[in-house]
DNA sequence: AATGAATGAGATTTCATTCAT
DNA sequence: CATGAATGAAATCTCATTCAT
């Protein structure tokens, strides 16, 4: 149980992370300055370094902090659904919801983290498989109960399903095509994506 | 018809672009130095600035230069195919081929260009729709002849199809999962992706 | 007579000084942080500033505090010796003893204090003459009683004698040549140094 | 044979080193900024880094560059002297000359280099033995021909002789006692130091 | 046209010092 | 008295870009 001091310490770390998400999303990780983040968080430049080892560490910590919450959200959402098709639909819905509610965070996850240092890139990909594994789980179940086609290669499908969903989300974030709402997109993505997997 | 001098000028520009592709892929756009590119290209630092306005311009020029060739490749490949399903398969095959033959280029397209400056982000998206429009063309045709379901939203589908393909390619590049060859992946991706679109 | 409270105040100041000696010796005055000293002393960073005006002041106070004890040690040791040659031998013995017993302190005296700010440098030299004056006293006496050569310039000799002793000590601390023990060195240093001064 | 370009490159490196000597002597290594050195050298800040890896490297390079010249000077000066006593006198004379002609350099050698990072400290001591070995050579010769006492421990004597000379020099630089000229000091130092070593 | 040394703005990071608790 | 989180000035170093040769 955190003492009052620890709690406020955690709160400040959180505040800096939120600021970083906002600033990195807007300016990009490399173009953004630590100074920018500090200003957004309302702290002094040096304060950042009391909570994070360096700029890279800030990005990594941000990622881990947020990732934890996101994976939880997915688990909670999928727990009570048994039909794999419904699970897949729910996965997409949750994913789009997350993005709709925090586009800045999504930008950081989808764009900023993917580049940066080679080290960070590797790191990202490694963490990234968390997402893929959720989908793999759904596919496996669906295959076992004969819902999905037996020739379907789970390993490849989990990737392309994720890619499909992710790209729809990214394009929405980038607003390149603000012509669609994410909720519309959910229907379309589900229908078309899922039908291809069915066994019958 | 270019004179000999002009030709060699073009050749040097090409050489710098190739060097940039290699260096940006390996180090990332921001982490790579202009010096690195110059060394890789075998020219002096200053020479780069005789051919490109600045570092950003090098990335953009690189993109445009390559994009032209790639779009040509696609057009040529799809020209003589009339069945939309076959066209989609061909699109995937060509895409995977491109990536297999020049993974560095793909990295730059997929990762570096997606972020960089906000300015570049916008720029990228605009160019990016060229890709998407090829897919859109295929879908439109397929819909018109009743091959694809009439409820299918072309605008969203072109995006998610691209995302699916792209992600399979990215994962292959990253080698995170070297467990699949791109040719295997082609089958799986086509089958599952396309079946969902069929009208019957 | 100090109250209990004052005593504990003095004790904490002492504790900080000891910590500073250790830390400065190991890391060097500039490379060491106030935080390091605080940690070594087992107090908070800010506490240091309740006892010392700033980092420079810590070094100066350290010096003065230690210097007092050292000069006392010398005075006590030399008090009951009348023969100047024996006094010189004793001086060397005491000096080497000090260094053997507290090499950290010696490092701070010999190395750290010598540089630092120009201000500190001046300060050091000024305090430094305390040492030299002890030697000068011995030489004067020896000259007066005809023990040391009359042409001997006390002013220069006090310096070079100190330098000789000090360097032997420094080399021992540095361990660059751990080949000699300080007690061996005492003999050699005394013999050779002193013989040159004799009048006969 | 250096080309014109290489020559001017070497010249600029030299210019920066001279500036560094001056600035480090005046302000101390840690208190001085790279900016200060750049200004003194009449170049831009960044230029320093074209010639030296970092601030530490500047100090080390400075040391090595100068050390080479100094050792040469000693070797040339001692080459044609056979009497070890005369050699020792000459050593002192040359040493004092060097210091008189370039007090700034001496300060850097004597004060700045001795502290700085632990790494530099070690480095300094290692290079330092070059000096000591010259003296050791003289002592050895003098002992062999029965000029110096046979009980004399060369290893310790080389150290204390150097210390004696060095301290006289340092005090002169510091001007703490501008009361003596270095040439006066030479006589005194030689006489007193050397007499102690004689065998008869 | 080509070179690459030089520039200097600007970014990251450190750390002595302060002050609210 | 003591604490230690916060500050922000300042230092080192990088690197895109320029320009004399």
Features of this protein?
homotetramer, mainly alpha, 9 helices, 0% strand, elongated, DNA-binding
Question: Could you give a short description of this structure?
Answer:
Chain A is mainly alpha-helical. Chain A contains 9 helices and no strands.
What does this structure look like?
The structure is a homotetramer of 200-residue chains. Chain A has nine helices and no strands. Residues 1-7 of chain A have low confidence and may be disordered. Chain A is elongated and about 60 Å long. Chain A is mainly alpha-helical. Chains in contact: A-B, C-D. At the A-B interface, helix 7, helix 8 and helix 9 of A face helix 7, helix 8 and helix 9 of B. Chain A binds a DNA duplex (21 and 21 nucleotides) through helix 1 and helix 3.
- What is the end-to-end distance of chain A? 53 Å
Helix content of chain A: over 70%
Secondary-structure-based class of chain A equals mainly alpha
Strand fraction of chain A: under 5%
**Main interface: chain pair and counts:** A-B, 54 and 54 residues
Mean pLDDT of chain A: 84
Q: Shape of chain A, please? A: elongated
Describe the largest sheet of chain A.
none
Poorly predicted sequence stretches spanning 5 or more consecutive residues of chain A: 1-7
Number of strands of chain A: 0
Rg from alpha-carbon coordinates of chain A: 19 Å
- Following the backbone from N to C, one meets helices and strands of chain A in this order, namely HHHHHHHHH
Oligomer: homotetramer
Tally of alpha and pi helices of chain A: 9
């Amino acid at each position: 149980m955190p003492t009052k001091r620890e709690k406020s310490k955690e709160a400040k770390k959180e505040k800096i992370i939120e600021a970083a998400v906002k600033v990195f999303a807007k300016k990009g990780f490399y173009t953004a300055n630590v100074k920018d983040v500090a200003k957004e968080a309302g702290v002094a430049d040096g304060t950042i370094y009391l909570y994070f080892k360096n700029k890279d560490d800030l990005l990594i910590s941000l990622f881990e902090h947020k990732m934890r919450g996101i994976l939880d959200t997915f688990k909670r959402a999928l727990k009570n659904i048994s039909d794999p098709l419904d699970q897949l639909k729910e996965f997409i819905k949750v994913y789009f919801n997350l993005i709709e509610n925090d586009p800045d965070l999504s930008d950081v996850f989808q764009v900023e983290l993917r580049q940066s240092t080679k080290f960070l890139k590797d790191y990202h990909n490694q963490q990234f498989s968390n997402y893929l594994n959720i989908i793999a789980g759904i596919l496996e179940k669906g295959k076992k109960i004969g819902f999905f086609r037996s020739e379907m290669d789970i390993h490849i499908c989990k990737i392309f399903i994720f890619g499909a969903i992710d790209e729809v989300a990214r394009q929405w974030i980038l607003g390149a095509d603000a012509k669609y709402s994410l909720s519309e997109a959910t229907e379309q993505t589900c229908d078309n994506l899922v039908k291809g997997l069915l066994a019958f």
